[in-house]
Amino acid sequence: MVKQWWARRYAAARAKSEAGMATAEYAMGTIAACGFAAVLYRVVTSGTVSGALQSVIGRALDAQF
User: Fold this and answer.
1) What share of the chain is helix, strand, coil (3-state, %, to 5)?
2) In angstroms, rounded to a whole number, what is the distance separating the alpha carbons of residues 44 and 57?
């Protein structure tokens, strides 16, 4: 009985001490996602990749079925 009480008290204290962690984790995840999106945008809009994508789409639209 004493062990269960101690375990519940320890879990409650630990949860209280990490209460602000979720907000920081969401902020870091959002910053990382925005950075990745910016890099991906730059790559996709570059001349080489844009030309390759247009070529692939053009060949797909001209395909004979």
Assistant:
1) 85, 0, 15
2) 14
| Helix (H), strand (E) at residue 3 | helix 2-17
To the question of pTM greater than 0.70 for the whole model, the response is no
Amino acid at 63: A
Q: Which two tokens stand for residue 27?
A: 């902020």
**What pLDDT, in 10s, does the model give residues 52-63?**
988 999 999 987
Report yes or no: 64 and 58 within 8 Å, Cβ to Cβ: no
Q: How many CB atoms lie within 10 A of CB 4?
A: 8
